[in-house]
Write a structure and sequence with these properties.
single chain, alpha+beta, Alpha-Beta Plaits, four-stranded antiparallel β-sheet, three-stranded antiparallel β-sheet, 2 helices, elongated
């Protein structure tokens, strides 16, 4: 989940929001730009209420990340994964086969 904050958010409200997110078991990655702060949330955000977060005074917008396993998908890693199992057996490339 990505939370974009309004310009110059109140430091107390920002600290409160980050503390609340930590209490929910989320990691918060803060990116500070020239005019906005973006919070990237890492963890299980499925139960988070977007409308509740968006209603906060310091929040400009909230977006869910659509691909929760982004680093494991074909967009991030297009090559087939091939795993060597035991002696001469490979899993991957669309099949399970024995290597002679």
């Amino acid at each position: 989940m990505i939370i974009v904050l309004k310009e110059n958010p109140d430091p107390g409200q920002l600290d409160g929001l980050i503390g609340w997110l930590h209490e929910k078991g989320l990691q918060v990655h803060t990116s500070t730009g020239e005019s906005h702060i973006v919070l990237g949330l890492v963890g299980d955000t499925a139960s988070m209420d977007i409308d509740l977060i968006a209603a906060l005074d310091i929040v400009q917008s909230v977006k869910r990340v659509q691909e929760p396993y982004k680093k494991a998908n074909r967009k991030f890693n297009p090559a087939d994964t091939v795993i060597q199992v035991g002696s001469g057996v490979q899993i991957g490339c669309g099949t399970l086969y024995h290597v002679a």
